[in-house]
Structures are given as C-alpha cells and as structure tokens.
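Appendix B. Chain record.
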Amino acid sequence: MSNPKKTVYCHRTGFQQTCFDMVTQKECPLWIEILGNDPQTNATISQNVCADAITPLLIIQGNQLQGQTTASVDKVAKEVENHRNESATLGAIAVQRSREAIKDVIENSVQSLHYADAPKLIEQRS
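Structure tokens predicted for this chain:
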C-alpha cells in the first residue's frame, strides 16, 4: 500500500494532522485502494487514494456511463418500435390478402353454381 504525501493535511481533522500520519497510524478510514482498468489503455490500475478526493471523479465517470446506457436503451427502443411497425404493416397486408382470397373463392363458387342446380342442392340438404 502506498502512503499519501507527508505535506498533505487532512481536511477531516481541520488540517491539524497530515494524511500521512493518519494513514500510517491506521486512523484514516478514507484511505482506500482503487482497482480497475484504465478506460483508454485498458491497463490494470491499483492505486491508493483518499475516498474524498476520488469521489468527484467517480461521480463524473458514473454519469458518463449512465449517458452511454441511456443512448443504448434509446437505440434499442427505436429498433423495437421499427419492428413493431413492420409487424403491423405485414399483419395488415396478410389480412388484406386473406380477404381478397376469400372473396375470390366465394366469387368462383357462386359463378360455378347454376340456377338449374339450386333445387337439387336444396333437396340434398333436406
């Protein structure tokens, strides 16, 4: 574990003690180890730092990630909407084609019937 510089004073003690003294005496609960990857180089990072000092940077990084997530969600939502519209259009086309096919079957059936055959059909049903 690396220690803070001896010339940096802790704001939590009213600048009465140095961060170095607080850390080496194990009185500082804010001296933490940060583990992660550098977003630009993807190199592993292991760094000891004051939690109060790193918090603003972590908030900024969190906000950036949230913005990227929102953009991704918006993109997926747009794709879903496009697929819904395509499905609705294809459904409407299928219904229209089904109606046309039924209409053709009915018209062909009616045309194939002869008026002379009507009494025979009625008798067969009775």
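Further analysis of this model is presented in Appendix C.
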